[in-house]
Specification:
Length: about 270
Amino acid sequence: MAFDLKRVLKVMLLASSGPLSVKDIQTAFARLHEQATNLPLTDESAAPAAPGETPVQGESAGALFAAVEDEKYYREVPTFVTATQIREGMETISTEAKASDSELLLVEGHNGWRLVTQPRFARWVRLLRNEPPPVRLSPSSLETLAVIAYRQPVTRAEIEQIRGVSADAGLSKLLERDLIYIVGRADLPGRPIQYGTNEIFLEFVGLKSLEDLPASDVLSPRQIDAWLQSASQPRHATDADMGLDEKEEAQMALGPTTEQTERPPS
C-alpha cells in the first residue's frame, strides 16, 4: 500500500480530540521517523530461519510479513510535509465531503481543522447527548457584539454612543456566553473597562482571525471615531440641515438692499 497523505490526514482528523493544526501534523511525522530510527520496525526474533533450522510458521510468519510490509510502507513516508501540502490535502478532503453530501464536514478555524457534523444532523447529536437547543442571541446582543468585534477594545460608553441605547443587558449576555472578555481599562477619566472578543467568538462566527471579518464602512475605526466625535460635540443645525434654501434666506435678511444703497438722494 503506497503512502497517501490524504488518507493519513483523515485518520488524524478522526482521532484528534480538538482542532488539528499544521504544526500538530508535522510533529506527528517527525515522531514517526524518530521512532523508526530508535526502534527498528522489524523484530530480530522473527528473522527468517537459518539453513538447517525449522522455518518460521503460523503467527510468526504472519507477523514477519506484516512487519516487512509496514517497513516498506513507512519508508515511503516523507520526513517532512510542508504547510502547502497539508492545506492542499485538507482542501481535497473538504471538496470531496461536500461533493458526496457527507454527514461530516471539514471546517478550518483559527487554530486548525476539525470534522463537524452537517447542520441538518445537529438535532440528533443534541438528542444523543441530551443537550438543550442552542439559545439564540437577541438583535440587541448581536449589535453590541458587532460593535465590539469591529471597534475593540471598546468601552461601554462608546458602545452606547454608537447604538444610542444602554448596553448593559447586551454586555451581560455576551460575557455570560463567553463571547467577549475584559481587555483592560481605557486611559480615560474614571479608567472605564474595555471589552474585546476572544477565540470562542471566532468559533461562533466561523472565522480564522479578526482579519477575516467582512469589510464595513459603517463600523470601520475611522468612521466610528468621526461618529463618536460628532456625538460628543453636537453642532447646531443649519438652514441646509433643515431643508431651507440658504440663498432665499440671505435675500430675506433684514437691512438695506443693493438698490436702496445705490439710490441717489432726492
